[in-house]
Design a protein that fits this description.
four-stranded antiparallel sheet, six-stranded mixed sheet, single chain
Protein backbone atom coordinates (compact mmCIF):
# COMPACT_ATOMS: atom_id res chain seq x y z
CA UNK A 1 0.00 0.00 0.00
CA UNK A 2 2.70 2.50 1.01
CA UNK A 3 4.76 1.60 -2.08
CA UNK A 4 1.72 2.35 -4.28
CA UNK A 5 1.06 5.69 -2.56
CA UNK A 6 4.73 6.67 -2.91
CA UNK A 7 4.59 5.77 -6.64
CA UNK A 8 1.31 7.70 -7.15
CA UNK A 9 2.72 10.97 -5.80
CA UNK A 10 6.05 10.49 -7.61
CA UNK A 11 4.33 9.98 -10.96
CA UNK A 12 2.04 12.96 -10.45
CA UNK A 13 5.04 15.32 -10.37
CA UNK A 14 5.83 15.17 -14.15
CA UNK A 15 2.10 15.65 -14.87
CA UNK A 16 2.05 18.84 -12.75
CA UNK A 17 5.27 20.09 -14.42
CA UNK A 18 3.80 19.54 -17.91
CA UNK A 19 0.73 21.59 -17.00
CA UNK A 20 2.92 24.37 -15.60
CA UNK A 21 5.10 24.54 -18.75
CA UNK A 22 2.08 24.62 -21.07
CA UNK A 23 0.49 27.36 -18.96
CA UNK A 24 3.67 29.45 -19.09
CA UNK A 25 3.92 29.01 -22.88
CA UNK A 26 0.29 29.89 -23.52
CA UNK A 27 0.11 32.43 -20.66
CA UNK A 28 -3.27 31.01 -19.67
CA UNK A 29 -4.94 29.53 -16.58
CA UNK A 30 -5.72 30.83 -13.14
CA UNK A 31 -3.25 28.53 -11.34
CA UNK A 32 -0.05 30.51 -10.60
CA UNK A 33 3.47 29.20 -11.14
CA UNK A 34 4.07 29.38 -7.39
CA UNK A 35 1.13 27.08 -6.79
CA UNK A 36 2.54 24.55 -9.26
CA UNK A 37 5.90 24.76 -7.52
CA UNK A 38 4.32 24.21 -4.09
CA UNK A 39 2.27 21.33 -5.46
CA UNK A 40 5.41 19.70 -6.90
CA UNK A 41 7.31 20.08 -3.62
CA UNK A 42 4.29 18.79 -1.68
CA UNK A 43 3.98 15.69 -3.87
CA UNK A 44 7.75 15.04 -3.56
CA UNK A 45 7.55 15.39 0.24
CA UNK A 46 4.57 13.03 0.55
CA UNK A 47 6.24 10.53 -1.80
CA UNK A 48 9.38 10.69 0.35
CA UNK A 49 7.40 10.00 3.54
CA UNK A 50 5.76 6.94 2.03
CA UNK A 51 9.14 5.79 0.66
CA UNK A 52 10.58 6.08 4.19
CA UNK A 53 7.69 4.01 5.57
CA UNK A 54 8.27 1.44 2.81
CA UNK A 55 11.91 1.04 3.78
CA UNK A 56 11.06 0.88 7.47
CA UNK A 57 8.52 -1.87 6.94
CA UNK A 58 10.25 -4.09 4.35
CA UNK A 59 13.90 -3.68 5.39
CA UNK A 60 13.11 -4.15 9.09
CA UNK A 61 11.04 -7.25 8.31
CA UNK A 62 13.90 -8.64 6.18
CA UNK A 63 16.28 -8.17 9.12
CA UNK A 64 13.86 -10.03 11.37
CA UNK A 65 13.64 -12.86 8.83
CA UNK A 66 17.44 -12.94 8.60
CA UNK A 67 17.61 -13.23 12.38
CA UNK A 68 15.09 -16.10 12.35
CA UNK A 69 16.92 -17.92 9.54
CA UNK A 70 20.26 -17.58 11.33
CA UNK A 71 18.79 -18.89 14.61
CA UNK A 72 17.05 -21.76 12.80
CA UNK A 73 20.30 -22.52 10.97
CA UNK A 74 22.31 -22.82 14.19
CA UNK A 75 19.56 -24.83 15.87
CA UNK A 76 19.49 -27.22 12.90
CA UNK A 77 23.28 -27.55 12.84
CA UNK A 78 23.40 -28.33 16.58
CA UNK A 79 21.02 -31.30 16.24
CA UNK A 80 23.10 -32.96 13.52
CA UNK A 81 24.98 -36.10 14.47
CA UNK A 82 28.76 -36.44 14.64
CA UNK A 83 29.14 -37.82 11.12
CA UNK A 84 27.66 -34.66 9.62
CA UNK A 85 30.64 -32.65 10.87
CA UNK A 86 33.07 -35.20 9.48
CA UNK A 87 32.00 -34.21 5.96
CA UNK A 88 31.22 -30.50 6.46
CA UNK A 89 34.19 -28.29 7.43
CA UNK A 90 33.64 -25.61 10.07
CA UNK A 91 34.66 -22.87 7.64
CA UNK A 92 31.99 -23.99 5.15
CA UNK A 93 29.33 -23.85 7.87
CA UNK A 94 30.56 -20.38 8.93
CA UNK A 95 30.32 -19.13 5.34
CA UNK A 96 26.73 -20.35 5.14
CA UNK A 97 25.87 -18.64 8.45
CA UNK A 98 27.29 -15.30 7.26
CA UNK A 99 27.49 -14.65 3.51
CA UNK A 100 24.74 -16.96 2.30
CA UNK A 101 22.14 -15.88 4.85
CA UNK A 102 22.99 -12.23 4.12
CA UNK A 103 22.48 -12.86 0.39
CA UNK A 104 19.02 -14.29 1.10
CA UNK A 105 18.23 -11.28 3.32
CA UNK A 106 19.22 -8.87 0.53
CA UNK A 107 16.67 -10.50 -1.74
CA UNK A 108 13.91 -10.55 0.89
CA UNK A 109 14.55 -6.88 1.75
CA UNK A 110 15.89 -4.63 -1.03
CA UNK A 111 15.11 -7.25 -3.69
CA UNK A 112 11.39 -7.44 -2.96
CA UNK A 113 11.10 -3.71 -2.23
CA UNK A 114 12.73 -2.61 -5.51
CA UNK A 115 10.82 -5.25 -7.47
CA UNK A 116 7.52 -3.87 -6.16
CA UNK A 117 8.65 -0.26 -6.77
CA UNK A 118 9.78 -1.11 -10.30
CA UNK A 119 6.52 -2.82 -11.27
CA UNK A 120 4.27 -0.11 -9.79
CA UNK A 121 6.32 2.85 -11.08
CA UNK A 122 6.63 1.26 -14.51
CA UNK A 123 2.88 0.57 -14.74
CA UNK A 124 1.88 4.06 -13.61
CA UNK A 125 4.44 5.87 -15.76
CA UNK A 126 3.44 3.95 -18.91
CA UNK A 127 -0.26 4.57 -18.16
CA UNK A 128 0.27 8.35 -17.83
CA UNK A 129 2.49 8.41 -20.93
CA UNK A 130 -0.25 6.62 -22.87
CA UNK A 131 -2.71 9.33 -21.78
CA UNK A 132 -0.46 11.91 -23.48
CA UNK A 133 0.34 10.06 -26.71
CA UNK A 134 0.04 6.32 -27.36
CA UNK A 135 2.29 6.29 -30.44
CA UNK A 136 5.17 8.06 -28.69
CA UNK A 137 4.81 5.75 -25.67
CA UNK A 138 5.19 2.68 -27.89
CA UNK A 139 8.30 4.22 -29.47
CA UNK A 140 9.75 4.90 -26.00
CA UNK A 141 9.33 1.29 -24.79
CA UNK A 142 10.91 -0.33 -27.89
CA UNK A 143 14.29 -1.01 -26.12
CA UNK A 144 12.62 -2.69 -23.09
CA UNK A 145 12.44 -6.25 -24.57
CA UNK A 146 16.10 -5.93 -25.53
CA UNK A 147 16.91 -4.79 -21.99
CA UNK A 148 15.03 -7.78 -20.58
CA UNK A 149 17.02 -10.19 -22.75
CA UNK A 150 20.34 -8.58 -21.75
CA UNK A 151 19.35 -8.76 -18.07
CA UNK A 152 18.46 -12.45 -18.43
CA UNK A 153 21.80 -13.31 -20.04
CA UNK A 154 23.82 -11.33 -17.51
CA UNK A 155 21.81 -12.73 -14.60
CA UNK A 156 22.47 -16.31 -15.70
CA UNK A 157 26.20 -15.67 -15.80
CA UNK A 158 26.10 -13.90 -12.42
CA UNK A 159 24.37 -16.90 -10.82
CA UNK A 160 27.07 -19.31 -11.98
CA UNK A 161 29.96 -17.06 -10.98
CA UNK A 162 28.44 -16.23 -7.59
CA UNK A 163 28.24 -19.95 -6.76
CA UNK A 164 31.98 -20.20 -7.50
CA UNK A 165 32.64 -17.14 -5.30
CA UNK A 166 30.72 -18.65 -2.37
CA UNK A 167 32.54 -21.98 -2.70
CA UNK A 168 35.87 -20.17 -2.67
CA UNK A 169 34.77 -18.09 0.31
CA UNK A 170 34.02 -21.33 2.19
CA UNK A 171 37.55 -22.57 1.45
CA UNK A 172 38.99 -19.24 2.60
CA UNK A 173 36.99 -19.30 5.84
CA UNK A 174 37.95 -22.91 6.52
CA UNK A 175 41.64 -22.12 6.06
CA UNK A 176 41.46 -19.11 8.38
CA UNK A 177 39.53 -21.06 11.03
CA UNK A 178 42.01 -23.97 10.94
CA UNK A 179 45.01 -21.65 11.27
CA UNK A 180 43.52 -19.78 14.21
CA UNK A 181 42.37 -22.95 15.99
CA UNK A 182 45.70 -24.67 15.38
CA UNK A 183 47.90 -21.65 16.07
CA UNK A 184 50.00 -23.60 18.60
CA UNK A 185 50.86 -26.26 16.02
CA UNK A 186 51.60 -23.62 13.38
CA UNK A 187 54.04 -21.85 15.70
CA UNK A 188 55.54 -25.06 17.07
CA UNK A 189 56.55 -26.20 13.58
CA UNK A 190 57.48 -22.66 12.40
CA UNK A 191 54.92 -22.84 9.59
CA UNK A 192 53.75 -19.22 9.75
CA UNK A 193 55.21 -18.30 6.35
CA UNK A 194 53.95 -21.49 4.73
CA UNK A 195 50.42 -21.03 6.09
CA UNK A 196 50.47 -17.35 5.12
CA UNK A 197 51.46 -18.29 1.58
CA UNK A 198 48.77 -20.99 1.43
CA UNK A 199 46.15 -18.51 2.66
CA UNK A 200 47.43 -15.91 0.16
CA UNK A 201 46.88 -18.36 -2.73
CA UNK A 202 43.32 -19.13 -1.66
CA UNK A 203 42.71 -15.40 -1.10
CA UNK A 204 44.11 -14.65 -4.56
CA UNK A 205 41.79 -17.25 -6.09
CA UNK A 206 38.87 -15.72 -4.16
CA UNK A 207 39.83 -12.26 -5.46
CA UNK A 208 40.02 -13.49 -9.07
CA UNK A 209 36.59 -15.12 -8.88
CA UNK A 210 35.16 -11.93 -7.34
CA UNK A 211 36.73 -9.86 -10.12
CA UNK A 212 35.25 -12.19 -12.72
CA UNK A 213 31.86 -11.70 -11.07
CA UNK A 214 32.41 -7.92 -10.92
CA UNK A 215 33.28 -7.83 -14.63
CA UNK A 216 29.99 -9.48 -15.52
CA UNK A 217 28.09 -7.17 -13.17
CA UNK A 218 29.86 -4.12 -14.60
CA UNK A 219 28.28 -4.79 -18.02
CA UNK A 220 24.75 -4.42 -16.72
CA UNK A 221 24.69 -0.74 -15.68
CA UNK A 222 26.40 0.75 -18.81
CA UNK A 223 24.12 -1.30 -21.08
CA UNK A 224 21.05 -0.16 -19.14
CA UNK A 225 22.07 3.51 -19.39
CA UNK A 226 22.89 3.09 -23.08
CA UNK A 227 19.55 1.53 -23.91
CA UNK A 228 17.53 4.01 -21.82
CA UNK A 229 19.56 6.88 -23.36
CA UNK A 230 18.66 5.51 -26.77
CA UNK A 231 14.98 5.74 -25.76
CA UNK A 232 15.41 9.40 -24.82
CA UNK A 233 16.97 10.20 -28.20
CA UNK A 234 14.12 8.47 -30.04
CA UNK A 235 11.51 10.29 -27.91
CA UNK A 236 13.17 13.69 -28.48
CA UNK A 237 13.23 13.17 -32.22
CA UNK A 238 9.74 11.73 -32.56
CA UNK A 239 8.27 14.09 -29.94
CA UNK A 240 9.87 17.14 -31.62
CA UNK A 241 8.18 16.25 -34.92
CA UNK A 242 4.84 15.86 -33.14
CA UNK A 243 5.23 19.30 -31.53
CA UNK A 244 5.90 20.78 -34.98
CA UNK A 245 2.74 19.09 -36.27
CA UNK A 246 0.80 20.25 -33.17
CA UNK A 247 0.11 16.67 -32.05
CA UNK A 248 1.96 17.20 -28.77
CA UNK A 249 2.67 20.14 -26.49
CA UNK A 250 6.08 21.13 -25.11
CA UNK A 251 4.81 20.37 -21.58
CA UNK A 252 3.73 16.88 -22.59
CA UNK A 253 7.11 16.17 -24.24
CA UNK A 254 8.84 17.44 -21.09
CA UNK A 255 6.67 15.06 -19.01
CA UNK A 256 7.65 12.23 -21.37
CA UNK A 257 11.36 12.94 -20.82
CA UNK A 258 10.85 13.10 -17.01
CA UNK A 259 8.90 9.85 -17.07
CA UNK A 260 11.71 8.22 -19.03
CA UNK A 261 14.07 9.51 -16.34
CA UNK A 262 11.82 7.99 -13.68
CA UNK A 263 11.83 4.72 -15.61
CA UNK A 264 15.62 4.70 -15.93
CA UNK A 265 16.18 3.59 -12.32
CA UNK A 266 13.47 0.89 -12.41
CA UNK A 267 14.96 -0.47 -15.62
CA UNK A 268 18.52 -0.29 -14.24
CA UNK A 269 17.42 -1.67 -10.87
CA UNK A 270 15.94 -4.59 -12.77
CA UNK A 271 19.50 -5.73 -13.46
CA UNK A 272 20.43 -5.23 -9.80
CA UNK A 273 17.30 -7.12 -8.70
CA UNK A 274 18.19 -9.98 -11.03
CA UNK A 275 21.68 -9.91 -9.51
CA UNK A 276 20.24 -10.12 -5.97
CA UNK A 277 17.83 -12.85 -7.03
CA UNK A 278 20.56 -14.94 -8.64
CA UNK A 279 22.78 -14.56 -5.56
CA UNK A 280 19.91 -15.47 -3.25
CA UNK A 281 19.06 -18.47 -5.43
CA UNK A 282 22.64 -19.75 -5.24
CA UNK A 283 22.82 -19.15 -1.48
CA UNK A 284 19.38 -20.62 -0.78
CA UNK A 285 20.38 -23.73 -2.70
CA UNK A 286 23.36 -24.17 -0.36
CA UNK A 287 21.24 -23.41 2.72
CA UNK A 288 18.51 -25.85 1.66
CA UNK A 289 21.09 -28.63 1.47
CA UNK A 290 21.75 -27.99 5.17
CA UNK A 291 18.10 -27.67 6.18
CA UNK A 292 17.22 -30.80 4.20
CA UNK A 293 19.83 -32.86 6.06
CA UNK A 294 18.29 -35.02 8.75
CA UNK A 295 20.26 -36.35 11.72
CA UNK A 296 20.51 -40.12 11.69
CA UNK A 297 20.34 -40.07 15.51
CA UNK A 298 17.18 -38.68 17.09
CA UNK A 299 14.30 -39.28 19.46
CA UNK A 300 12.23 -42.47 19.04
CA UNK A 301 9.68 -42.22 16.21
CA UNK A 302 6.83 -43.27 18.53
CA UNK A 303 7.88 -40.48 20.88
CA UNK A 304 7.83 -37.88 18.11
CA UNK A 305 4.33 -38.91 17.06
CA UNK A 306 2.95 -39.24 20.58
CA UNK A 307 4.83 -37.65 23.52
CA UNK A 308 2.85 -39.91 25.90
CA UNK A 309 4.84 -42.87 24.48
CA UNK A 310 8.11 -41.40 25.79
CA UNK A 311 9.91 -43.14 28.61
CA UNK A 312 9.67 -40.95 31.68
CA UNK A 313 11.86 -42.45 34.37
CA UNK A 314 15.05 -41.45 36.11
CA UNK A 315 18.08 -43.36 34.85
CA UNK A 316 19.79 -45.34 37.60
CA UNK A 317 22.86 -46.32 35.56
CA UNK A 318 22.68 -50.03 34.65
CA UNK A 319 24.42 -50.43 31.27
CA UNK A 320 24.52 -53.58 29.15
CA UNK A 321 26.09 -54.31 25.76
CA UNK A 322 24.71 -57.42 24.05
CA UNK A 323 26.58 -58.78 21.02
CA UNK A 324 27.47 -55.27 19.87
CA UNK A 325 29.43 -54.84 16.65
CA UNK A 326 30.15 -51.35 15.37
CA UNK A 327 31.75 -49.61 12.42
CA UNK A 328 31.47 -45.97 11.41
CA UNK A 329 30.46 -46.56 7.78
CA UNK A 330 29.31 -49.67 5.94
CA UNK A 331 32.52 -50.02 3.94
CA UNK A 332 34.76 -49.33 6.96
CA UNK A 333 36.33 -52.06 9.14
CA UNK A 334 34.69 -52.92 12.48
CA UNK A 335 35.91 -50.84 15.42
CA UNK A 336 34.10 -52.97 18.02
CA UNK A 337 33.48 -56.71 17.73
CA UNK A 338 31.16 -58.91 19.76
CA UNK A 339 31.04 -56.69 22.84
CA UNK A 340 29.17 -58.30 25.73
CA UNK A 341 29.46 -56.23 28.86
CA UNK A 342 27.24 -55.51 31.84
CA UNK A 343 27.90 -52.54 34.15
CA UNK A 344 25.83 -52.36 37.31
CA UNK A 345 24.47 -49.09 38.67
CA UNK A 346 26.96 -47.44 41.02
CA UNK A 347 29.86 -49.57 39.74
CA UNK A 348 33.20 -48.08 38.69
CA UNK A 349 34.60 -49.64 35.54
CA UNK A 350 38.08 -49.05 34.16
CA UNK A 351 38.84 -49.48 30.45
CA UNK A 352 42.36 -49.84 29.12
CA UNK A 353 43.86 -50.89 25.82
CA UNK A 354 46.34 -49.88 23.17
CA UNK A 355 45.65 -46.91 20.90
CA UNK A 356 42.88 -47.71 18.42
CA UNK A 357 41.41 -50.54 20.45
CA UNK A 358 37.97 -48.87 20.53
CA UNK A 359 37.85 -47.41 24.06
CA UNK A 360 36.41 -44.00 23.13
CA UNK A 361 34.04 -45.51 20.56
CA UNK A 362 32.62 -47.81 23.23
CA UNK A 363 31.63 -44.98 25.58
CA UNK A 364 30.40 -42.78 22.71
CA UNK A 365 27.73 -45.38 22.01
CA UNK A 366 26.31 -44.94 25.53
CA UNK A 367 25.38 -41.29 24.94
CA UNK A 368 24.37 -42.08 21.33
CA UNK A 369 26.97 -39.91 19.69
CA UNK A 370 26.89 -42.84 17.27
CA UNK A 371 24.21 -45.50 16.90
CA UNK A 372 24.80 -49.23 16.76
CA UNK A 373 23.27 -51.28 13.96
CA UNK A 374 24.35 -54.71 15.16
CA UNK A 375 23.52 -55.84 18.67
CA UNK A 376 21.68 -54.12 21.50
CA UNK A 377 22.71 -51.47 24.04
CA UNK A 378 20.50 -51.27 27.14
CA UNK A 379 20.34 -48.73 29.94
CA UNK A 380 18.25 -49.89 32.91
CA UNK A 381 17.10 -52.83 30.74
CA UNK A 382 15.62 -50.47 28.13
CA UNK A 383 17.16 -50.12 24.62
CA UNK A 384 19.08 -46.86 24.56
CA UNK A 385 17.27 -45.80 21.34
CA UNK A 386 13.97 -45.63 23.24
CA UNK A 387 15.12 -42.74 25.44
CA UNK A 388 14.70 -39.09 24.52
CA UNK A 389 18.14 -37.78 23.57
CA UNK A 390 17.89 -34.85 26.00
CA UNK A 391 16.94 -37.14 28.89
CA UNK A 392 19.68 -39.62 28.05
CA UNK A 393 22.50 -37.14 27.60
CA UNK A 394 21.54 -35.01 30.61
CA UNK A 395 22.02 -38.14 32.71
CA UNK A 396 25.60 -38.57 31.45
CA UNK A 397 28.59 -36.48 32.46
CA UNK A 398 31.34 -36.78 29.85
CA UNK A 399 34.93 -35.56 29.95
CA UNK A 400 36.33 -36.16 26.42
CA UNK A 401 39.93 -36.79 25.41
CA UNK A 402 40.11 -33.45 23.64
CA UNK A 403 39.19 -30.83 26.20
CA UNK A 404 37.13 -27.95 24.87
CA UNK A 405 36.60 -24.73 26.82
CA UNK A 406 34.53 -21.76 25.68
CA UNK A 407 35.79 -18.19 25.38
CA UNK A 408 33.99 -17.27 28.58
CA UNK A 409 34.72 -17.03 32.30
CA UNK A 410 36.08 -20.05 34.16
CA UNK A 411 32.94 -19.95 36.28
CA UNK A 412 30.62 -20.21 33.27
CA UNK A 413 32.73 -23.00 31.79
CA UNK A 414 32.45 -25.05 34.97
CA UNK A 415 28.73 -24.29 35.36
CA UNK A 416 28.03 -24.95 31.66
CA UNK A 417 25.60 -27.81 32.32
CA UNK A 418 23.75 -25.97 35.08
CA UNK A 419 20.37 -24.45 34.21
CA UNK A 420 20.10 -22.89 37.67
CA UNK A 421 23.45 -21.37 38.55
CA UNK A 422 24.87 -22.35 41.94
CA UNK A 423 28.17 -20.72 42.93
CA UNK A 424 28.72 -23.11 45.85
CA UNK A 425 28.38 -26.07 43.49
CA UNK A 426 30.99 -24.54 41.16
CA UNK A 427 33.46 -24.02 44.01
CA UNK A 428 32.86 -27.57 45.29
CA UNK A 429 33.49 -29.04 41.83
CA UNK A 430 36.62 -26.89 41.40
CA UNK A 431 38.02 -28.20 44.68
CA UNK A 432 37.26 -31.81 43.75
CA UNK A 433 39.08 -31.44 40.41
CA UNK A 434 42.03 -29.65 42.06
CA UNK A 435 41.61 -26.54 39.87
CA UNK A 436 40.45 -24.33 42.74
CA UNK A 437 43.98 -23.36 43.91
CA UNK A 438 44.96 -22.35 40.39
CA UNK A 439 41.81 -20.29 39.89
CA UNK A 440 42.22 -18.66 43.30
CA UNK A 441 45.65 -17.37 42.20
CA UNK A 442 44.23 -15.61 39.12
CA UNK A 443 43.57 -11.83 39.53
CA UNK A 444 39.87 -12.20 38.68
CA UNK A 445 39.57 -15.72 40.11
CA UNK A 446 36.43 -17.41 38.68
CA UNK A 447 35.63 -14.33 36.57
CA UNK A 448 38.83 -14.82 34.54
CA UNK A 449 38.01 -14.80 30.83
CA UNK A 450 39.51 -17.68 28.88
CA UNK A 451 40.93 -17.25 25.39
CA UNK A 452 39.78 -19.37 22.47
CA UNK A 453 39.61 -23.03 23.57
CA UNK A 454 41.08 -21.96 26.92
CA UNK A 455 44.41 -21.01 25.35
CA UNK A 456 45.54 -19.16 28.50
CA UNK A 457 45.37 -22.37 30.57
CA UNK A 458 47.82 -25.25 30.57
CA UNK A 459 46.74 -28.70 29.34
CA UNK A 460 46.36 -29.96 32.89
CA UNK A 461 44.33 -26.92 33.95
CA UNK A 462 42.01 -27.44 30.97
CA UNK A 463 41.44 -31.07 31.91
CA UNK A 464 40.76 -30.23 35.54
CA UNK A 465 38.30 -27.51 34.49
CA UNK A 466 36.57 -30.03 32.25
CA UNK A 467 36.39 -32.55 35.13
CA UNK A 468 34.85 -29.83 37.34
CA UNK A 469 32.25 -29.21 34.63
CA UNK A 470 31.26 -32.91 34.66
CA UNK A 471 31.09 -32.98 38.48
CA UNK A 472 28.85 -29.90 38.50
CA UNK A 473 26.41 -31.67 36.17
CA UNK A 474 25.80 -34.28 38.91
CA UNK A 475 25.04 -37.05 36.37
CA UNK A 476 23.89 -40.62 37.01
CA UNK A 477 26.61 -41.90 34.65
CA UNK A 478 30.07 -40.32 34.67
CA UNK A 479 32.52 -41.01 31.83
CA UNK A 480 36.14 -39.85 32.12
CA UNK A 481 37.86 -40.53 28.80
CA UNK A 482 41.62 -40.28 29.46
CA UNK A 483 40.81 -37.22 31.60
CA UNK A 484 44.10 -37.31 33.54
CA UNK A 485 46.55 -37.58 30.64
CA UNK A 486 47.78 -33.98 31.05
CA UNK A 487 48.10 -34.00 34.86
CA UNK A 488 50.95 -35.42 36.93
CA UNK A 489 50.49 -38.57 39.00
CA UNK A 490 50.37 -36.65 42.29
CA UNK A 491 47.54 -34.36 41.06
CA UNK A 492 45.80 -37.38 39.55
CA UNK A 493 45.89 -39.12 42.92
CA UNK A 494 44.48 -36.03 44.65
CA UNK A 495 41.64 -35.76 42.09
CA UNK A 496 40.78 -39.45 42.47
CA UNK A 497 40.70 -39.03 46.26
CA UNK A 498 38.30 -36.11 45.86
CA UNK A 499 36.18 -38.05 43.40
CA UNK A 500 35.69 -40.99 45.79
CA UNK A 501 32.76 -39.28 47.48
CA UNK A 502 31.37 -38.08 44.17
CA UNK A 503 31.54 -41.56 42.61
CA UNK A 504 29.58 -43.26 45.39
CA UNK A 505 26.32 -44.64 43.99
CA UNK A 506 27.21 -43.31 40.54
CA UNK A 507 28.00 -45.47 37.51
CA UNK A 508 31.50 -44.45 36.47
CA UNK A 509 33.61 -45.40 33.47
CA UNK A 510 37.30 -44.50 33.59
CA UNK A 511 39.33 -44.74 30.37
CA UNK A 512 43.08 -44.41 30.76
CA UNK A 513 46.46 -45.61 29.59
CA UNK A 514 47.68 -45.41 33.19
CA UNK A 515 47.25 -48.34 35.53
CA UNK A 516 47.34 -45.93 38.50
CA UNK A 517 44.08 -44.38 37.32
CA UNK A 518 42.23 -47.69 37.05
CA UNK A 519 43.65 -49.98 39.70
CA UNK A 520 41.00 -49.16 42.33
CA UNK A 521 38.08 -49.72 39.92
CA UNK A 522 35.53 -52.40 40.76
CA UNK A 523 36.34 -54.05 37.43
CA UNK A 524 38.77 -53.38 34.61
CA UNK A 525 38.10 -54.15 30.95
CA UNK A 526 41.03 -54.68 28.58
CA UNK A 527 40.24 -54.03 24.91
CA UNK A 528 42.28 -55.43 22.05
CA UNK A 529 41.44 -54.65 18.42
CA UNK A 530 37.84 -53.83 19.33
CA UNK A 531 37.15 -56.91 21.46
CA UNK A 532 37.19 -57.56 25.21
CA UNK A 533 40.43 -59.48 25.75
CA UNK A 534 40.48 -59.49 29.57
CA UNK A 535 38.16 -58.57 32.42
CA UNK A 536 38.53 -58.53 36.22
CA UNK A 537 39.91 -56.60 39.17
CA UNK A 538 43.43 -55.20 39.22
CA UNK A 539 44.74 -58.15 41.24
CA UNK A 540 42.93 -60.70 39.07
CA UNK A 541 44.39 -59.28 35.88
CA UNK A 542 47.92 -59.17 37.31
CA UNK A 543 47.63 -62.87 38.13
CA UNK A 544 46.44 -63.67 34.58
CA UNK A 545 49.80 -62.43 33.32
CA UNK A 546 48.22 -61.17 30.09
CA UNK A 547 47.95 -57.83 28.30
CA UNK A 548 47.10 -55.90 31.48
CA UNK A 549 49.99 -57.39 33.43
CA UNK A 550 52.35 -56.58 30.57
CA UNK A 551 51.22 -52.93 30.53
CA UNK A 552 51.55 -52.80 34.33
CA UNK A 553 55.12 -54.10 34.30
CA UNK A 554 56.15 -51.69 31.56
CA UNK A 555 54.72 -48.74 33.51
CA UNK A 556 56.50 -49.87 36.70
CA UNK A 557 59.75 -49.99 34.74
CA UNK A 558 59.14 -46.50 33.33
CA UNK A 559 58.50 -45.14 36.83
CA UNK A 560 61.72 -46.71 38.12
CA UNK A 561 63.70 -45.21 35.23
CA UNK A 562 62.23 -41.77 35.96
CA UNK A 563 63.30 -42.07 39.60
CA UNK A 564 66.84 -42.96 38.53
CA UNK A 565 66.95 -39.89 36.25
Amino acid sequence: MVITLSAVFTNLIPFVISRAIDQIKNNTGDFSLLNYALLTVGFALISGIFLYLTRQMIIVVSREIENDIRNDFLEHILVQDQQYFHFHPTGDIMALATNDISAVRNFLGPGIMYTAETLINFTMAISLMLSFNAELTLIAVVPIPLISYVVYRIGKSINYKFELVQEEFSALTTKAQENLSGIKVVKAYVRENSETESFRKISESYKKKNLELAKVQSFSYPIMFLLTGFSVIIVLYAGGNKIISNELTIGQLTAFIIYLGLLTWPIISLGWIINLTQRAEASMKRLCEVFDSKPSIGDPEACRKNPCECIDKKISGNIEFRNVNFRYLNNYPYVLRNINLKINAGETIGIIGHTGSGKTTLVNLISRLFDIKEGVLLIDDIPVKQYLLDDLRSSIGYVPQETFLFSDTIENNIAYSEKNFDKDKVIYAAKISQIYKDVDSFPKRFDTILGERGINLSGGQKQRTSIARAVTADPEILILDDAFSAVDTYTEEEILKGLKEVLKGRTTILISHRISTLKNSDRIIVLKEGSIAEEGTHDDLILKNGIYADIYLKQLLEDELKEID
